[in-house]
Write a structure and sequence with these properties.
The protein is built from four helices and twelve strands, in the order βαββββαββββββααβ. By secondary structure, it is mostly beta strands. The chain has one domain: hypothetical protein yedk fold.
Amino acid sequence: MCGRIASNISGVEQILQYFGLERLAVTYQPRYNIAPGQQVFAIIQNRHGKRNATYLRWGLLPSWAKDPQLSYKMINARAETADQKPTYRNALRLRRCLIPATGFYEWCQVDALKTPYFIRLLSSAPMALAGLWEEWQAPKGETIRSFTVLTTAANHLVSSIHNRMPVVIPKCSINTWLDHSNYDLPQLMNMMQPYPAEDMEAYPVSTIVNSPINDRPECIRPIS
């Protein structure tokens, strides 16, 4: 499961270069404790190949949904079965997205104690978290764009904390992931494998991250 992320990339230029954007159409605001239900900075590409930054609400709301509360049950989608589930398979074909992040949180439970860990790349490069997005039309006309984070089995670093982790798309595969003109399912499935553990690190952080109200740099600082 992936239920909390941080996105405090050092500058706009790094975002433009890493994700292949010409400019930002929206303002990027560094965040340290992003939770489901919130608006999240994301990268999407339309069927004509135009790539944009936008904001999507975390928690997928399919176009056919009757109850908007359904989105809170769809913050994650299993990568292994996304092509088989009616909720996700059309989005996997036509609406893949990326969530720029600097890392994600998982909680390790030992007896009654739950310790939050922050997991990031050793290189400090941005993480491109794989997602699927949808557009939902409310009865009164409001349009909501939302997304889910794809997850896969944890690598041996993360597995000591949790058995699942978000799919991280390597920089060399970003163009392929966002390109909907060629739906090569085996190629996509190959991209949705656990990220190499040797390229990541995990460390405990303060329990202030337990509350989404706390959205500040202290959330990602290591504690002894």
